[in-house]
Amino acid sequence: MSHELSRREFALSAVAAGTAMAAQTSAGVLGANERLQVGVIGVGNRGRELQDALKAIPEAKITALCDVYDPFLQAAKDDLGGNVATYKDYRKLIESKDVDAVVIGTPDHWHALQFVDACNAGKDVYVEKPLSLTVKEGRIMCDVAKKTGRVTQVGTHRRSSKMYAKAAELVRSGHIGHVSVANCYHLQNETPMGMGKPADSAPPPGLDWDLWLGPAPKVPYNRNRCLYRFRWFYEYSGGQLTNFGTHYLDIIQWALGQNAPKAVMAMGGKYAVQDNREIPDTMQVVWQYDGCIVTFSQYNANSAAGNPPHAETEFRGTLATLYTGYRGCTIEPQRVRYREIPFKDPRDRKGSNGQYGALKPSGVEKSEIKGGATNVDHVRNWVECVKARKECSAPVEVGHRSTSATLIGNIALKRGKVLEWDAQAERFTNDDKANEMLFYQYRKPWKLA
Ligand SMILES: NC(=O)c1ccc[n+]([C@@H]2O[C@H](COP(=O)([O-])OP(=O)(O)OC[C@H]3O[C@@H](n4cnc5c(N)ncnc54)[C@H](O)[C@@H]3O)[C@@H](O)[C@H]2O)c1
Predict the structure, then answer these.
(1) Which fold has domain 7-159+379-395?
(2) pLDDT for position 20
(3) Which residue has the higher pLDDT, 426 or 25?
(4) Distance (Å, rounded) from C-alpha 235 to C-alpha 434?
(5) Has residue 16 got a pLDDT over 70?
(6) Protein residue with its CA nearest to atom 29 in ligand 1
(7) Above 60 in pLDDT, residue 298?
(8) Which band of pLDDT confidence, cut at 50, 70 and 90, is reported for residue 10?
(9) In angstroms, what CA-CA distances link 419 with 232, 402, 412, 431, 437?
């Protein structure tokens, strides 16, 4: 028997020896010029974007691919010139000694299982947002990552953007004054027919529908429940609130310097789009943070844009409003009062300032921060941190907190009441039924190790 451990064996033995040691393992064993061997699980819409990002990073090399839908797996393999191992069952990919780290681009209901299995196998992980389908899964993912000493990145890629970092820093530092309101939007007119109402049918050739469902309840195949469109069904996703909302709440929590709300309420329903979706086409969520309320507006029956049109998120400060969007960030100054609001006798008809008195510029300049966010920057941050055994820009704990805020918004909608949130205990303090929604029973034989 050889006394020389392979790179992978050494990493695994070190993980077994404990977290502190594990934190140095892969870094120690991956030489500065060695390429990180990456396996991609789920090569649909997002998986292929992440595959493109990995191809642009010389320090990484894709050695394995996995998907339960053969045509997508074949297309991803062809894209790499065919020189890559392929799997239908992610557990086999995770076992491979030619895989140091995995990228998870599967639907949300798979994230927890695949992430936990990968960590336990000693692989570092990049997992797409939203981190999980339920809050409890997210907490388990954080605990397992910590215990196994894995380097993790959640796909909230705005965290690796200089523009978003600058915007968050300006808000946190008080540049725009006290921010008492932050709003974010998902606007898209999908009326009248949305995705339509296709009948249940046999799955398309090459799709393992049972493996696609995994821990979710067994139901007949329906085109709208599967590729990409799973977002509109609660058994696989939290809808647009967790899909887009996690990106936005991530920026908002970062900018406010807070990692959780104290309370949440939501209203909405399926009012206008006539398809077989479960999630609302119209929804408004309100969170209470320290000194600030935050809202998410999901309007899928009207798409009229806000101000400026590209903005996804707005921070309303006492001195200025800061808008962030995928194509830039703008700061619009406020005009402010410089003395107490005077009492004006209504019999005095002179002057034009009514009861409120004159305003003056706040002193904040109108300005723009150019830029956006790219997948390559975020994936590169992960690859570099894996090699250096450093914390990424969006580690699992951060992704968990950003995802949790949105997940509890969906619970508030289902419960139809204001829910108080104990962020430390990750439980509601005023509704036992809501606490039951923090996890769901997996379909056998799936369970979180
Ligand atoms: N960060 C971002 O901006 C961003 C953008 C798009 C999607 N996403 C996230 O990426 C994830 C995937 O979304 P999508 O739009 O790519 O969906 P998709 O349906 O296009 O792709 C998912 C792929 O996973 C495969 N899959 C399902 N179960 C699997 C399993 N057990 N093992 C291996 N493969 C499996 C499917 O066959 C499919 O090819 C979602 O969580 C979504 O929220 C993130």
Answers:
(1) Rossmann fold (3.40.50)
(2) 36
(3) 426
(4) 17
(5) no
(6) 212
(7) yes
(8) very low
(9) 24, 17, 6, 7, 12
Mutate to test the pocket of ligand 1, among 116, 128, 234 (most ligand atoms within 8 A of CB): 128
For ligand 1, say whether the CB of 68 is within 6 Å of any of its atoms. yes
Write the DSSP string, 163-227.
HHHHHHHHHHTTTT--EEEEEEEEE---TTTTT--PPP-PPPTTB-HHHHHTTSPP----GGGST
Q: Where in the chain is the domain with CATH 3.30.360.10?
A: 162-329+400-436
**What pLDDT is recorded for position 27?**
38
Mean pLDDT value across the chain = 92
Going by DSSP bridges, is the β-strand pair 36-41/60-66 parallel, antiparallel, or unpaired? Answer: parallel
Residue 157 Cα: closest atom of ligand 1: 1
**CA 65 to centroid of ligand 1, rounded, Å:** 13
287 within ligand 1 shell (Cβ under 6 A): no
Given 3.40.50.1000, 3.30.360.10, 3.40.50.2300, 3.40.50.11690, which CATH number is that of 162-329+400-436?
3.30.360.10
What local confidence, expressed as pLDDT, does residue 355 receive?
62
* Nearest atom of ligand 1 to the alpha carbon of 228: 19
Look up residue 342 and give its two tokens: 């005077």
Residue 158 near residue 247, CB atoms below 8 Å: yes
> Using a 6 Å cutoff on CB, does residue 67 contact ligand 1?
yes
Ligand 1 mean position to 130 CA, how many Å? 11
For residues 57 and 379, the answer to whether their CB atoms sit within 8 Å is yes
List where CATH 3.40.50.720 sits in the chain.
7-159+379-395
pLDDT over 70 at 116, yes or no: yes
Ligand 1 center from residue 420 Cα (angstroms): 32
**pLDDT band for position 33 (50/70/90)?**
confident
Compute the distance from residue 106 Cα to the ligand 1 centre, in Å: 3
Q: Where does 259-381 show beta strands of DSSP type E?
A: 263-269, 282-289, 292-299, 311-317, 320-325, 328-333, 335-337, 359-361, 367-369
Ligand 1 within 6 A of CB of 228:
yes
3-state secondary structure of 124: strand
